[in-house]
Amino acid sequence: MTDTTDQSSFIMHRFRFRAMGSNVEIAVRCEPADIQRVEQLAKDWFEAAEMRFSRFRPHSELSRLNRLEGGRFLISDAMLEVLLLAEAFHLQTEGTFDPFILNALRHAGYDRTFDEVKRRTEPPASSAPVRPDTKRQLLVDPVMKSVRLPLNMEIDLGGIVKSWTVKRLESYFQDKLAITRGFINAGGDLTVWSKPRGEDEPWLIGIENAWKPEADIGTLAISNGSAATSSKLGRTWPAADGIMRHHLIDPSTMRPSQSDAVQCTVSGWDIIGCEIWAKTICILGVTEGLSLLARNSRNYEALVFTDKHEVVYYGSKLSLGKQWNGLTIDHYHYADA
């Protein structure tokens, strides 16, 4: 099928705003008359997602669910979709991705928005340590559109909602507004598209240097696809014991991960999968994380930065120099070997 739309009057429009504790950057090819509409739609969509899924908003759907203490809760279609995705990735990552980490995040000191955490003048007070719970169970009823949480357990969906929000907005732009080229980046969770395929140059995405965030260490060339970066070095804060904490909780210990992976960028076809696998590799570390990715998922590639200041690549040999560019890599794990 050939796209016969006359796009001679279209321009590439770029805009930015703040949402979900992150900087959101969007670029879309559209007619000048549609600019205001596209901007407002994007801002409204992110705000609606935050109103539904934020643990920091007391009246959000997620906060009301967490307060129900074991009772069955009727949920929206959006919440049902995200919870089912969370359960699917919990299985796919063999338990590493786990929404039942809210109490552990609070214990670590992430008990308010990160902007408020950064403004805190004293380390957070210690709370009772959280023990891993092998009986976690998210009882979702897709027919009744309801869910029940175990007693004294709460969930956090921050590890999946941002990429879900990006993916849904991208789908709307393409399917409803017929936007043929675009870029959406929400705090490192990004997706790009170009249609018809092959007619536009690929998007060039800068890969952040883990140890010098102000500089890129290379570029990622994508025409249609996604990438997500997760890091232990960005969202950090000091605890009362003087040790820095971060937001990536290892569910096997219910404490911030101490693996050798400090930052990971994952590229692939699905932005939600990219976000989940980037976090999973950071939590588990290079060897275990990449082994799990190779075992349970395909069509993803990863660039991992270690605590020894080494760079590890996992993916196809053919992608080096074509998709991943300008990189100095210390260790290679070829998915097509």
From TrEMBL:
Cofactor entry: Mg(2+)
Keywords in alphabetical order: FAD, Flavoprotein, Lipoprotein, Magnesium, Metal-binding, Transferase
UniProt cross-references to Pfam families, sorted A to Z: ApbE (PF02424)
Gene: apbE_2
Catalyzed reactions: L-threonyl-[protein] + FAD = FMN-L-threonyl-[protein] + AMP + H(+)
Enzyme type, top EC level: transferase
Organism of provenance: Paenibacillus konkukensis
InterPro entries, sorted: ApbE, ApbE-like_sf
Protein's name according to its UniProt entry: FAD:protein FMN transferase
Keyword presence, Transferase: yes
Enzyme Commission no: 2.7.1.180
The UniProt record lists the keyword Translocase: no
Domain of life: Bacteria
